[in-house]
Design a protein that fits this description.
Layout (H helix, E strand, L loop, with lengths): L4 E4 L5 H7 L4 E4 L8 H8 L4 E4 L7 H5 L6 E4 L9 H6 L3 E3 L6 H17 L1 H9 L21 E5 L3 H10 L5 E5 L6 H7 L2 E2 L2 H7 L2 E4 L13 H6 L5 E4 L8 H9 L5 E4 L19 E3 L8 H19 L12 H4 L2 H4 L3
Parallel strand pairs: 1-2, 1-3, 3-4, 4-5, 6-7, 6-9, 7-8, 9-10, 10-11, 11-12
Helix pairs in contact: 1-12, 5-7
Bound molecules: glyoxylic acid (GLV).
The site of glyoxylic acid (GLV) has 6 residues, from loops.
Length: 337
């Protein structure tokens, strides 16, 4: 029997390729850039599976272009780049890679909390630009205290919880908002108080965003929400760019409604040159790298490949997004291996 055909939208860690190669005929986009939509449509047209990244918009047209497609496996925890309901209708399994990037992402969120509080990136630019002319000055680069302050977490899922756990060392007061409240037992274990979004914004010294990007979370943090924050507060976003209204954030920073922000994610990635956030000193910027450790990225690639192979073996993948797809195409009809 012919091997299943799989398209991989970018070169991925060997850990993923090693899982795919014994079972599949694998075609890889060798370019540094993601495939264009036309390319993705062309490549998907004769494939049984797709390994994609969060930069690939797997929309209705892409899904429609692959009559043989049985599985779209993303190397990411977020899956807002995939039209999941369309995939389900077409009997296409959608899988993702949660868990293995939780620690890397929570660590990085803390790097951003500390960076914005202590103005690390700004200070680095200052030194490199040879602007450091006075050896030590009592009021130079005053930052914000973190120890003992209040951390507000928006979204207490895996990553939000891991961020909370790390706050213990800083003896912070913890509060969170989540559309779905966590069980009381979990709140007790984490030592976190549940409250409204408004209260989190009004009381927290650091607000960090960890909800998925959905129509309901689009601009969840907009002008009105930024207006509620303390002038000494900082906003951190390692989730998805469009959860924060960037134009409103730029105004909030310029007009000093808040003290600073640190962002790993943006509405348009890579960031556009006209983005006003690029020109604000007290905004720390990173190029969507929160999960970027070797450990995390290798595991993500391996798990994505394992998810894909499981579907093609007719087995339930460990991390399935659309469990209802099994009623449209039972696993026995996805089985090729
Ligand atoms: C990163 O943003 C991911 O979704 O994995």
């Amino acid at each position: 029997m012919a091997k299943p055909k799989v398209y991989v939208t970018r070169e991925i860690p060997k850990a993923g390729m090693d899982v795919l190669k014994p079972y599949c005929e694998v075609e890889v986009n060798q370019a540094e850039q993601p495939p264009t939509k036309a390319e993705l449509i062309l490549r998907a047209s004769d494939k049984d599976g797709l390994i994609c990244l969060l930069t690939d918009q797997v929309d209705k047209e892409v899904l429609a272009s692959g009559p043989q497609l049985k599985v779209v496996s993303s190397i990411s925890v977020g899956f807002n780049h995939i039209d999941v309901s369309e995939a389900t209708k077409r009997g296409i399994y959608v899988t993702y890679t949660p868990g293995v990037l939780t620690d890397a992402t929570a660590d990085f969120t803390w790097a951003l909390i500390m960076a914005t509080a202590k103005r690390v990136a700004e200070a680095d630019r200052y030194v490199r630009d040879l602007k450091w002319k006075i050896a030590w000055a009592p009021m130079m680069f005053l930052g914000s205290e973190v120890y003992g302050r209040t951390l507000g977490i928006i979204g207490l899922g895996r990553i939000g919880s891991a961020v909370a756990e790390r706050a213990k060392g800083f003896r912070m007061k913890l509060m969170y908002y989540d559309p779905v409240r966590a069980p009381t037992q979990k709140e007790k274990e984490v030592g976190i108080e549940y409250t409204s979004l408004e209260n989190v914004l009004k009381q927290a010294d650091f607000v960090t965003v960890h909800v998925p990007y959905l129509p309901e979370t689009h601009h969840l943090i907009g002008r009105d929400q930024l207006r509620m924050m303390k002038p000494t507060a900082h906003l951190v976003n390692t989730a998805r760019g469009p959860i924060v209204d960037e134009a409103a954030l730029a105004t909030a920073i310029k007009e000093k409604w808040i003290a600073g922000a640190a962002l790993d994610v943006f509405a348009k990635e890579p960031i556009e040159s006209q983005n006003p956030l690029l020109h604000l000193e007290n905004v720390t910027l990173a190029p969507h790298i929160a999960s970027a450790t070797g450990e995390s990225r290798f595991a993500m690639a391996r798990i994505a490949a394992e998810n894909l192979i499981a579907v093609l073996k007719g087995e339930k993948p460990t991390f399935l997004v659309n469990a209802d797809v099994m009623t449209v195409r039972p696993l026995s009809r996805a089985k090729m291996l």
